[in-house]
Specification:
With 158 residues, this protein is an alpha/beta fold. It has one domain: Response regulator (Rossmann fold, 3-Layer(aba) Sandwich). Helix content is 41%, strand content 13%. It has 5 helices and 4 strands; from the N terminus they run βαβααβαβα. The chain has a 4-stranded parallel beta sheet, with helices on both faces. Strand 1, helix 1 and strand 2 form a beta-alpha-beta unit. Helix 2 crosses helix 5. The radius of gyration is 14 Å and the shape is globular. The protein starts with a strand and ends with a helix. Bound molecules: 4-nitrophenyl phosphate. 4-nitrophenyl phosphate binds next to loops.
Amino acid sequence: MVRVLFVCLGNICRSPTAEGVFRSVVERAGLLEHIEIDSAGTHAYHVNAPPDARSQAAALRRGIDLSCLRGRRATRADIEQFEYILAMDRENLSNLQAICPPGLEHKLGLFLEYAPERPEREVPDPYYGGEHGFERVLDMIEEASHGLLAHLRQRHGL
Ligand code: 4NP
């Protein structure tokens, strides 16, 4: 079993979207029993909250239902238990580095490292912007999800 945790600030926009999109990509590949997928936020503003209504609507337009997900905060134990802890931007990567147990820093990275064709390295926070921001977040996340699955297949022989 390979464990992947997606991390953003609030765990209501970007990381639950990444969790839902990546789960659907993994499901279509028939690999759900080999890859565990979760998401968390580095702040506690939205603990127990469902994903933002705009994220849910944008994901649903692409056939992905995020309604069952609930916000939670990333912990040191997450860094011990997951193999891939992928932050949406550098601010959240640095928040994770601040709580990372010594010797586990290699597990932390930026999700968009798996979308090397894209010019961006960060998934921008859509929270205070318009509808278009949520579509852009989905485009980026879809691309990185395919790259991540290809990496996991190769690296872990899936
Ligand atoms: P997320 O977006 O990190 O993609 O879930 C945000 C959600 C809420 C806030 C900031 C970003 N907030 O400030 O409440």
